[in-house]
Amino acid sequence: MTMTALGEPSVLLKLGEVVLKGRNREIFEMRLRANIKHALKDHRVDIRQRHGVIALFLPAGTEVEEAEVVAARVADVPGIVLVHLAWRVAKDTDAITKAAIELIRDSDEVARKARFAVRSRRRDKRFPLRSNELDRVVGGAINDTYGLPVDLSNPELTVHIEVDKDEAFLFTGGRPGQGGLPVGSSGRALALLSGGIDSPVAAYRMMRRGLRVDFLHFSGIPFTTSESIYKAYALVRNLDKFQGKSRLWVVPFGKAQQSIKNSGQDRLAVIAQRRLMLKTAEEVAHRIHAEALVTGDSLGQVSSQTLTNITAQDHAVDLPILRPLIGLDKTEIMAEARRIGTLEISELPDEDCCTLLAPRQAETRAKIEDLKQIEKRLDAEDLAAQLADSIQPYKLDV
Ligand code: ATP
Ligand code: MG
C-alpha cells in the first residue's frame, strides 16, 4: 500500500467538558466512544483514543467526500466541541512538511497569496523538534513553495499540525460540535413533546447535558386527526441524530380532555389538563426508570406559564420538571430550533390537542385548591394510571 504525500483521511474530535471530569473522565470518555460508535454504525471507522482527543481512522483510500460525511455525522454527537477533517501522516518532519504543502495546494488562500501561519502542538513530547521549530520548518517550506506571507498574529490560513503517539495529524479548518456531555452520562428523562416549537428544543438542551431523553406525546384523538402524531414522530426522528435509540409514546388523550371540559371550571381547564399530562408522564417515567420530566415552558410566554401556574404544575408531581427554556425569548428558541433542524417540522400545520379546550379566558393565577377539587371529581390519579396503560409505542433509530 502506498500512501500519497497527503496521508490518510481521518477525523479528529476535541472534547468539551468531558476533560474537566477528573476521576470520572474515563467513564465519560467510554460513554462518548460508545455514542460515537452508534452514530457511525453505517460507516467503517476505527475509534482511537489519544491523549485528550479522539481520532477516527478511516480505511486506507477512503474518499474525502466520505470523510466529510463522517465528520458531519459525528458533529451531532453531544460531548464534542470541535470536529476536524484531518490528514494522518507518518510522524516524521519530512512527511509532515510534504503533506502540509499538499494540503493547501488547491486552496483559495494559496491562489490569492493569503497571509498564513503554521501552528503545531505535540501530544508526544519525544518528537525531535519542538513545536515552534516544526512551525518554522513547515512554514518555511510553504513560503518557499507558494510565496505566501507569514502572519502569526492574524493569519487568513492556519495549518494545524498535531504530533501524536504513533502519527501526526494535519488540518486547516474545522466545524463546531454540539458541546455538552455525552448522552446517558446524566441519566434518563421523559420529555413532554407537543407538536410545537419549544418542546423539541427543550429535549435537545437536556440531551446536551447528558440525559438520555424519551418522548411522550398527548394526542387529541379520537377528537382530532393524527397529524400531531406524525409531527411528533418526525420531530423525534430528527432529534434522534443527537442520541440514537429514541423512543416515543403517544397517549390518546381526547376522552380525558372531554371529561375535564365537562367538569365545569372553564378558566382552569388548560392548567388542569397540563397537570393531568404531568401525572400521566410521571407514571410512564416510573415505568421506564426516567428520573425527571422535561417541558418546553418559557416564563410568561403563554397563560399556562405564569409563575403561579408553573408552581401549580410542579405541585402535581413528585419528579423534578426540567424546563431548560424557562429564561429564553421566543426568538432565541426559534433560532435554536432552526439550527437543530426541528423548526420546519414544528411549523407544519396540525390540530393541537390543547385547542380542544381553549377557554375564552384562561386563568393566570390558578389556585391549587380549586385544581384539586376538579381532580377529585375526575379521579385524576386513577385516570393518569389508565392513560399510562394506554400508551402506544414508536421506536426510532435512524
Ligand atoms: P410548545 O411549543 O413546546 O408546544 P408552547 O409554547 O406551545 O410549547 P404550551 O402549549 O403551554 O406551550 O406547552 C408547554 C409545554 O407542555 C410544552 O413545551 C410541552 O412540553 C408540554 N405539552 C403541551 N402540549 C403537549 C402535548 N400535546 N403533548 C405533550 N406535551 C405537551
Ligand atoms: Mg404548544
TrEMBL record:
It is found in: Cytoplasm. It is an enzyme of class 2 (transferase). Pathway: Cofactor biosynthesis; thiamine diphosphate biosynthesis. GO terms for cellular component: cytosol. ATP binds at L192, L193, H217, F218, R274, G296, Q305. Its EC number is 2.8.1.4. Keywords: ATP-binding, Cytoplasm, Nucleotide-binding, RNA-binding, Thiamine biosynthesis, Transferase, tRNA-binding. This is Probable tRNA sulfurtransferase.
